[in-house]
Design a protein that fits this description.
The complex is a heterodimer of chains A (235) and B (369). Chain A is mainly alpha-helical and 235 residues long. Chain A has one domain. Chain A is 84% helix and 0% strand. In chain A, α3 runs parallel beside α8. The radius of gyration of chain A is 30 Å and the shape is rod-shaped. With 369 residues, chain B is mainly α. Among the domains of chain B are: 145 residues, no CATH class; 91 residues, Fusion Protein Consisting Of Minor Coat Protein, Glycine Rich Linker, Tola, And A His Tag, Chain: A, Domain 2. In chain B, 39% of the residues lie in helices and 7% in strands. Chain B has 14 helices and 3 strands. The longest helix of chain B has 21 residues. Chain B starts with a helix and ends in a 6-residue tail after the last strand. The chains are: A mainly alpha (235), B mainly alpha (369). Chains A and B meet through α2 and α3 of A and α1 of B.
């Protein structure tokens, strides 16, 4: 009997060896998936920190807003700072209010409408900002496994072609190729699984924050409407 | 965002670095020392011939030669055993620590008699033994001490039945024994190991003629056989379980040089070509070939059927065909079926039944044969 170990090419089956022996396409897939994984985690880190920050900012702003401080004073305090979230909506509404009021608005209904528009725009901008890049998480989550599978299929195809070429079906000849091909699927899953989980979590978080901003915008709109009623002379 | 990307990249790099280290080349499975694996060649089961799986291939398959005369006339399993068990004969015996006790020879006689040992076999007649034992062994000592003694001692200690054995061997053929002594004395050491079932010490058999134990033999024989039947399964189990002593397999003896073959003969006597032709011709002659079949020389009709030992049909005839005109083909197939029925019963040699039990014939009705 032949000594199989002597026949089998001595292949490096370490992680790096597997990557290095892979074909060009498989290598490309692996590198792409690695990049996707890095991107996924960058988004996850960025978003979860950002949402935490936004939530704390909302809490602080609401506290100040409902503390009985006059709107003018609050506007003056916030005006020169860079604001996001609720603060940005508040600033947008106040700015519109000031502009219209200082120039002497004729119709309280038109003024109310303008303020609402301004708040809507601000709200849309803020929620866009919150949800930005979440779609790429969704894309990586759904496409990652397929890309990895593509790499695997190509890799296994190559190793079967190798069998056809070498006329040897020994497992030792096939195994490195298959292991290397499977590595592509593994990387795809490594990238996709966190992406899917994070997408679900982050998009629901973003939804909650947006709902909170909408609630504030509605409430603030009601307050301003009352003010307009009080301050504008009846026509 | 840039901070997140950098930290993410750093985390990935760290994980990959750890992966490169911990998934570094696994220790390869060491196959260098593996023995080559023997492969049994499985051929048509009906063609098996009794022989030895490990022996060289020879013209005629034969199991390993055995050393004793056959005691059971219709034994199926090859071996030196007194009982026809299915365990394979093995010769290796683990070293027995007991053998150190061989030195004191005088103690043999006392030791041999007691049947108390809990071995499966002991039931075999304690009575007949006592008288013969002292006689045989006392006599044995003076002359052959050097070679013979080690065995009886070891056996006496390990096996309960040393006595019946000598009696059995003589029964079959007293004459052959005379020739054997020389060989058997050489083989003694192996046999000591094997006995379990049939502890006949060959040395003793050799001597028996001198001792004139003739009158006792008939008793021991009759005694021994019934006990074997009774304990057949128990013995077999004990043989399988007891790995200390080598087992000797079945009770069928073989005298030929071992050569490649199976454990069992399942047939293999082949019909001669003329016999095959005779069957073929008989069916062909009884076949009323349809008119016009000559126009289709490529028409092929296949018949398959099974026969019982008496040459009658077993089951149904499976006839099929291809080529030629479908209508004529159908007629031809039906004709072939009738031809077989007409040819029944086939009168063929019984010992080659395995070969003619299944018949597959291919006819070319379009070609004149």
């Amino acid at each position: 009997m032949e000594d199989l170990t002597a026949v089998a090419v001595h292949t490096d089956v370490s992680l790096w060896g597997l990557f290095w022996q892979a074909g060009f396409i498989v290598k490309l897939v692996m590198v792409g998936l690695l990049g996707a994984s890095i991107w996924t985690w960058a988004i996850i880190l960025d978003k979860s920190l950002g949402y935490g920050r936004a939530k704390r900012a909302f809490d602080r702003f609401e506290q100040v807003f409902w503390s009985g401080q006059s709107l003018e004073e609050l506007y003056r305090n916030l005006g020169d700072k860079r604001t996001t979230g609720m603060g940005a909506i508040f600033i947008a509404a106040m700015r519109e209010w000031k502009k219209s009021f200082e120039k002497g608005a004729r119709s309280p209904i038109a003024l109310q409408m303008r303020i609402d528009k301004a708040m809507d725009v601000a709200l849309a901008r803020e929620s866009d900002y919150l949800a930005a890049r979440l779609t790429s998480l969704a894309t990586i989550g759904s496409a990652g496994p397929f890309i990895g599978l593509f790499g695997t299929v190509i890799g296994i195809m190559t190793s079967f072609m190798g069998i056809a070429g070498s006329k040897s079906t020994s497992l030792a000849v096939v195994a490195p190729g298959i292991a290397e091909a499977l590595l592509a699927t593994a990387i795809g899953l490594v990238a996709a699984i966190p992406a899917v989980i994070a997408y679900n979590k982050l998009s629901s978080d973003a939804g909650k924050l947006t709902a909170r901003m909408e609630g504030f915008a509605d409430e603030f709109s009601a307050i301003l409407s009352r003010q307009i009623d009080e301050k504008l002379p009846r026509t | 965002m840039r901070g997140s990307i950098t930290s993410s990249a750093i985390i990935h790099a760290a994980l990959l670095g750890w992966g490169l280290l911990s998934f570094s080349a696994p220790t390869p499975m060491d196959m260098a020392n593996s023995e080559s694996m023997p492969i049994d060649i499985v051929s048509d089961v009906s063609q098996l011939q009794k022989g030895d799986k490990k022996a060289e291939k020879k013209e005629k398959p034969a199991p390993k030669p055995t050393q004793k005369p056959q005691t059971i006339p219709d034994a199926q399993n090859i071996g030196d055993s007194e009982t026809d068990v299915e365990t394979k004969p093995t010769t290796e015996t683990k070293p027995k620590p007991v053998e150190a006790a061989e030195a004191p020879k005088p103690s043999e006689t006392p030791v041999a008699k007691p049947d108390p040992l809990p071995e499966p076999k002991p039931e075999v007649k304690p009575e007949p033994k006592p008288t013969p034992v002292p006689a045989t062994e006392v006599k044995a000592e003076p002359e052959p001490k050097q070679e013979v003694k080690p065995d009886p001692v070891a056996e006496a200690i390990n096996d309960v039945k040393p006595v019946p054995a000598p009696a059995e061997t003589p029964k079959a053929e007293p004459s052959p024994q005379a020739e054997k002594p020389a060989e058997e004395q050489f083989k003694l050491p192996e046999k000591v190991a094997m006995p379990q079932a049939k502890p006949t010490p060959p040395a003793q058999t050799a001597k028996t003629p001198d001792r004139k134990e003739a009158p006792e033999k008939p008793k021991t024989q009759t005694a021994a056989t019934p006990s074997k039947e009774k304990d057949g399964i128990a013995d077999q189990v004990a043989d399988l379980l007891n790995r200390q002593k080598a087992s000797a397999g079945g009770a069928q003896r073989s005298s030929e040089q071992a050569s490649l073959g199976a454990n069992k003969t399942t047939g293999g006597a082949k019909l001669s070509q003329s016999e095959k032709d005779a069957i073929y011709a008989l069916v062909n002659d009884n076949w009323n070939k349809p008119v016009g079949v000559q126009d289709y020389p490529d028409m092929v009709v296949r018949i398959k059927y099974r026969l019982t030992r008496s040459g009658e049909l077993d089951g149904s005839i499976d006839a099929s065909g291809s080529g030629g005109d479908p209508a004529i083909l159908r007629t031809a197939i039906e004709g072939a079926r009738r031809a077989v029925l007409k040819s029944l019963p086939f009168n063929l040699p019984q010992d080659k039944y395995d070969d003619w039990a299944q018949n597959d014939f291919t006819f070319h009705p379009g070609v004149n044969e």
